[in-house]
Design a protein that fits this description.
Blueprint lengths: L9 H11 L4 E8 L8 E9 L5 E7 L2 H38 L6 H22 L10 E3 L1 H16 L4 E5 L7 E3 L1 H21 L5 E15 L7 E11 L27 H11 L3 E7 L2 E9 L9
Parallel strand pairs: 5-7
Antiparallel strand pairs: 1-2, 2-3, 4-6, 7-8, 8-10, 9-10
Helix pairs in contact: 2-3, 3-4, 4-5, 5-6
Length: 306
């Protein structure tokens, strides 16, 4: 297929997802270009993996009118996103740097959070305006605990004394292979949801974040090469009211939210990010306790004590 479409084409990401997913993968309005194509196409793509390890794939050109309108709309959105969001982010970073020069005790850590979060949003905006999706992560090794500490520092600053955040980390875990920006966005959504649920569930409001090896579980990770990868578990548990049983099976779908004014995108993004990393996510909830469990393949590093 690389003789027809470029090796970094979204088609290969869809095939990778289909290999890990039971059921159909659909991607309407996907841009396709390559050495075997005379021009760039916008296609509706359908993919399904077969029991023999192969794939069934169908691609249909969108109507010419739709192609022109969609391409113009996406390109226009990319320009607006890149300009209208990145400019104020630059101002936020600059203001934080100026305040840092005059900061008093206790402020420098908060200003560092502002700068780091603004830079992370700027990176995501750059990637989104280049039409990158959460389903196409940049895979590199990184320390999961450093990522979680950044998220917890940000959420502690946002929630203040309303929520107690607890950590239960296994320091012997090796690096995770993944996209740190995408996974930070996913865990930020999970931890923020947990904090908001806990603060609505009465006192004391607690959120506990744990990491550990997932005993007895391995992933066959095509993206990272042949062979099995051991799995790690990251769980986020809150003391909120819980999720009704009849909603637990649909909370990862787009536009499913019980929060007033919410758009229902957060958990759907979490699932998309985790799935794109070859992982799994599940929820267990009863009144007074909700736990989201994320399983991710580990890197090849050895266990360490620190």
């Amino acid at each position: 297929m690389s003789e027809i479409v470029y090796h970094d084409s979204p088609v290969f990401e869809l095939l990778d997802r289909a290999q890990r997913t039971v059921g159909d993968i659909t991607a309407p309005g996907t841009p396709i270009s390559g050495p075997g194509l005379l021009s760039r196409h916008i296609c509706d793509i359908w993919v399904r993996s077969t029991d023999e390890g192969g794939f069934m794939i169908a691609m249909c050109d969108a109507a010419t009118r739709d192609v022109n309108e969609s391409a113009a709309g996406v390109a226009g959105f990319g320009r607006i996103l890149g300009h209208e969001v990145k400019n104020p982010l630059g101002g936020i970073i600059g203001a934080a740097q100026l305040l840092e020069r005059q900061s008093v005790d206790g402020q420098s850590e908060l200003l560092e959070i502002i700068k780091e979060e603004a830079r992370r949003i700027e990176r995501l905006v750059n990637r989104l305006s280049a039409f990158e999706l959460f389903s196409a992560p940049h895979m590199e090794p990184f320390n999961i605990h450093a990522l979680l500490e950044r998220v917890l520092a940000s959420e502690t600053a946002a929630m203040g004394s309303k929520v107690e955040f607890k950590r239960d980390f296994d320091p012997s875990l090796p690096p995770v292979i993944g996209d740190s920006d995408h996974l930070q966005q996913a865990f930020q959504n999970l931890i923020r949801n947990a904090a908001e649920a806990a603060s609505d569930g009465g006192v004391p409001a607690k959120v506990t974040v744990r990491t550990s090896y997932a005993a007895g579980l391995s992933f066959r990770q095509a993206r990272l090469g042949a062979g099995l990868r051991r799995a790690m578990l990251v769980s986020v548990e809150d003391t909120g009211k819980g999720i009704p049983r009849n909603r637990q099976s649909s909370i990862f779908e787009v536009f499913q939210s019980s929060k007033s004014g919410a758009r229902g995108l957060g958990l759907s993004i979490v699932k998309e990010v985790v799935t794109a990393h070859g992982g799994q996510i599940r929820v267990d909830s009863v009144p007074g306790s909700t736990r989201f469990s994320v399983l991710l393949p580990l890197g090849t590093g050895e266990r360490s004590d620190g």
